[in-house]
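User: Hi! I'm working on a homework problem where we have to compare a predicted structure to a textbook description. Could you give me the structure for the chain below?
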Amino acid sequence: MKSGRRRFVKSAAMVGGAVAAIPLSSCVEGNKPRDTSKIHTDYSNLDEVLKKPVLKRSLFPDPVIIETLELLKDRKNTICRVRSKDGAVGIAIGHPFIAKSSFPMFNINLKHHFLGKDARDLDMLIFNATERNVKNQGIPLNVQVAVIEFAILDMLGNIADKPAGQLIGEVHNEKIPIYLGHHFTNLRKLEPEESLELMHQDAQETNAKAIKLRAGRGDNLASDIDNAPGRTEKLIRMAREKFGDEMTLMMDGNGSYSVKEAIRIGKILEEYDYYFYEEPVPWDWYEEQKQVEEALDIRMAGGEEEFRIHAFRYLVGNEVFQIQQPDLFYFGGMVRTMKVARMAELAGLKITPHISRGGLGFVYLLQMVSVCPATARFHEFKMFETKDANGTTVPIESKTEPFNSTNGEIDMLTGSGLGITIDPQYINTHKVVKD
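Assistant: Happy to help. Predicted structure tokens:
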């Protein structure tokens, strides 16, 4: 039970995975006694985890100097192409919608952190690109960091003849169990009878054993407003009736609720045995989120919008969420996500990385989850859609396996690099963005 886990965290030193809760000093300031009931968290073991390198440098005995790092663009869509001095190449597709506005950061704020550097120093290169860009930090910057990292991992994987994921971790999941996390507009705009039927059709196609639904308006404003009175409560009940007790159900609030309303909806989710409850209050309301977490027994999930690694240190150390959800793009790539996974593992929590729909999202997700420790039971899947920012399908082929979902699971990718080949003709429609 989650409540038992909470008691353990608050009463034990962080040995073998528990986070210590250490009382503050009970000194007196003037005539006002300090409240000794307050506690602070010992992050020392999490800090040790954060110091450990992620990339397996030992796979590369010789330097891999980045000679060119190019941003290619066709209307709204972007591609990153990296080439080493020895001629190795890596390619990745940019974020399917944010990259169209943040692409100037690639050349202005990021390129100099990588160009001419040894790709074996990827951990430090990513650190410098994110943490030393203090005036530019945020999701727009991170999606550019991520696509650079994905391209470098593609290049390094091709050099080592290994999948990109296995450059940063050991295989934990040869098969990735999925949950359907799409139809988010339909789930809020259509009547439950209609939206659940759409989800049911996709569940039959993929044989998915888990589904995530959407609560409230999804405005991230804590408005406590539904698109139609009582729709969320109806959706919660009807989904359980339609899919039965064997289907694992989750709910995403997308910041729809105040604390009071989040707790009320959470109690209904508990009644219908939902697996997790994602971000019911606005994403960065962490104090309020902790109040919701403490009032409920359902697992809480979140972190999709977070772009700061120090914030995940807080979220893990204080168990604000039982399931951490860094987005592979918004958070700046797989190296940083692996650090969150390691912290979660040490604290006895779980992780299920988030990814946006479109582009090569599902490819990046499969690479990450295959080597990710402390994974939750299911991972977000928005169908095998590869439409880029222009709405054009990215023509790709797997280097080894067909893309399919068998019994609600997708095989990890085993080809070198990102495990896919992109049609060169598609890449040639994009032109290099000059400095």
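For your comparison, note the following. DSSP finds 15 helices and 19 strands in the chain. Residues 139-160 form the longest helix (22 residues). Good luck with the assignment!
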